[in-house]
């Protein structure tokens, strides 16, 4: 301790404190002052939320894993230029996404820098990537979920396509969040209407059918195509390289444009393949005018060029997305790929099943499954597939049509196509009681 007492910096800090020159951080941040600070930092709208409200209880737990002491959040938006996002030229659209992504991170960083300079602990939650990759794909890999915070902060509501629509800027925004350990003098509340017009143009434009008219989102369809050059799509490409016998074989699996696109993604940041749901959305006061003037023109100039574009759409084999492209967009090329979404633990299995469930493929199946996992992970689950719906419950409920008793490691090896089912059945690492066709039908509902 004696050593630290004589350190020049320690002496100076103590001297300042004694002289009353050390600035104490404010006990409460004034909302008006904070709003001005955020706008000066480049935000185009901002709202404040406290973490006491029950709607954000789960979010707070997640954020505390990265930043202890979260009391309130500053939610802000940065606007994207519409015509670039809408362009069928992927290079133009991706540039707009990437640059706005960068700006949004910068705005968050500037806000944090200002707050830190007055002694307030503040944390900038990444807009998107990089994320906590070591959790992929078992848990959510993002630290802050910006959408629920933006909704609570009164910056808009999620439309049918599950993007937040701002009442003025529409869905041409990216979201940022700065978390602080200090209370704010006034908090915002969700706005009392949804800017979404329910026109369903997003449903019509999405090449993979990921957006359903009832607001359901097919996570697997979107991530397989749109994120082909991110995460799981990248892993699938690596496996393609590994599995190729020689250069000629590789060239048959990956076309030259695909290689060029991948190189661009690796060199300049990963390229999205679509985002057409965002492109076509006419909602928001600043966006709506031309659509109200002539829906026909909006369709012809914005929606049709994206629908008519001849392009490759990436799908999982025998998925709802594959059927959708074949039916709605016969001029687009279908390419079957893997998306890397495979469970390795029972927890990941439970989280992942709803994300890869194929509602249309499941039609006609009415079955209750009792799973008993043994070995390293012991757990009982009841999984019901009925009327295109999936339900998962802990424990065993009701009378099953098929009982599956499986050593957990063997089961996940089988799901990842690394172990043969026949071998697992013969060695009794997986045991079935009931018609085996129900296991085949189960597998069809969750292609990966
Ligand atoms: C995960 C994610 C995705 C996923 C899932 C999309 C989704 N609807 O959530 C995928 C990869 C498909 C995706 C795609 C896109 N995304 Co995105 N994405 C995120 C991320 C990281 C978290 C989203 C979130 O909060 N989900 C939770 C709840 C609130 O949303 P939800 O819709 O109910 O949840 C779904 C998924 O999150 C998923 N999920 C939930 N829990 C778990 C757990 C695990 C383990 C997994 C794997 C998945 C998963 O399943 C849910 C149902 O489908 C945020 C960035 C962030 N850190 O917040 C950006 C974000 C939502 N994305 C954004 C954008 C712009 C896009 C794209 C347009 C990208 C592009 N340029 O093409 C597309 C649009 C697709 C769409 N219509 O939603 C913006 C949206 C801005 C806005 N105005 O709302 C965000 C907020 C980024 C940002 N900082 O601005 N995205
Ligand atoms: S395109 Fe239409 S239906 Fe889709 S989110 Fe926008 S306003 Fe809602």
Give a description of the structure.
The chain contains 21 helices and 15 strands. By secondary structure, it is α+β, with helices and mostly antiparallel strands. The protein folds into 3 domains: 15-184, NADH Oxidase; 201-336, no CATH class; 346-445, Nonspecific Lipid-transfer Protein, Chain A, CATH 3.30.1050. Strands 13-12-11-14-15 form a 5-stranded mixed β-sheet. The radius of gyration is 25 Å and the shape is globular. The N and C termini lie far apart (59 Å).
Mind sketching the topology for me?
Layout: H1 2-5, H2 8-18, E1 28-29, H3 31-40, E2 45-50, H4 57-64, E3 72-79, H5 82-86, H6 90-117, E4 122-125, H7 146-152, E5 157-158, E6 164-165, E7 173-180, E8 183-184, H8 201-205, H9 219-226, H10 231-243, H11 247-253, H12 256-268, H13 276-280, H14 285-293, H15 295-308, E9 312-315, H16 320-328, E10 333-336, H17 346-356, H18 359-362, E11 367-374, E12 379-386, E13 389-394, E14 402-407, H19 408-415, H20 421-426, E15 430-433, H21 437-445
Parallel strand pairs: 1-8, 9-10, 11-14
Antiparallel strand pairs: 2-3, 3-7, 4-7, 5-6, 11-12, 12-13, 14-15
Helix pairs in contact: 14-15
This protein binds cobalamin (B12) and iron/sulfur cluster (SF4).
């Amino acid at each position: 301790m004696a050593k630290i007492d004589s350190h020049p910096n320690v002496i100076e800090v103590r001297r300042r404190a004694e002289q009353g020159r050390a600035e104490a951080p404010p006990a409460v941040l004034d909302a008006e002052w904070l709003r001005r600070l955020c706008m000066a930092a480049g935000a185009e709208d901002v709202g404040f939320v406290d973490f006491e409200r029950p709607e954000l209880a789960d979010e707070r737990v997640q954020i505390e894993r990265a930043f202890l002491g979260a009391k309130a959040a500053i939610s802000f938006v940065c606007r994207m230029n519409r015509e670039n996002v809408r362009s069928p030229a992927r290079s133009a659209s991706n540039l707009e996404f990437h640059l706005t992504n960068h700006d949004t991170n910068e705005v968050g960083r500037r806000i944090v820098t200002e707050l830190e300079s007055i002694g307030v602990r503040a944390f900038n939650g990444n807009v998107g990537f990089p994320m906590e990759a070591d959790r992929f794909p078992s848990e959510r890999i993002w630290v802050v979920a910006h959408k629920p915070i933006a909704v609570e902060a009164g910056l808009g509501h999620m439309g049918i396509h599950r993007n937040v629509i701002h009442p003025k800027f529409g869905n041409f925004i990216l979201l940022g969040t700065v978390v602080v350990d200090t209370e704010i003098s006034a908090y915002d509340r969700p706005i009392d209407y949804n800017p979404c017009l329910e026109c369903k143009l997003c449903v019509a434009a999405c090449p993979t059918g990921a957006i359903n008219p009832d607001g359901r989102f097919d996570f697997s369809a979107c991530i397989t195509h749109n994120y082909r050059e991110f995460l799981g799509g990248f892993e699938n490409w690596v496996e393609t390289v590994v599995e190729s016998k020689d250069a000629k074989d590789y060239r048959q699996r990956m076309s030259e444009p695909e290689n060029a696109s991948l190189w661009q993604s690796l060199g300049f940041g990963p390229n999205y393949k679509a985002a057409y749901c965002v492109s076509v959305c006419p909602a928001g006061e600043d966006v709506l005018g031309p659509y109200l003037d002539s829906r026909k023109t909006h369709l012809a100039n914005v929606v049709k060029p994206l629908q008519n574009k001849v392009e490759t759409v990436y799908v999982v084999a025998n998925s709802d997305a594959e059927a959708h492209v074949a039916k709605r967009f016969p001029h687009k090329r279908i390419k079957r790929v893997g998306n890397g979404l495979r469970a390795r633990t029972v927890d990941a299995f439970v989280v992942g099943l709803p994300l890869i469930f194929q509602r249309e493929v499941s039609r006609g199946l009415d079955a209750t499954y009792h799973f008993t996992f043994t070995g390293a992970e012991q757990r009982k689950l009841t999984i019901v597939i009925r009327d295109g719906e999936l339900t998962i419950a802990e424990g065993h409920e009701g009378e099953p049509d098929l009982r599956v008793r499986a050593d957990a490691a063997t089961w996940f090896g089988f799901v990842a196509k690394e172990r043969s089912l026949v071998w697992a059945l013969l060695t009794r690492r997986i045991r079935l009681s009931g018609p085996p066709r129900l296991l085949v039908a189960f597998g069809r509902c969750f292609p990966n």
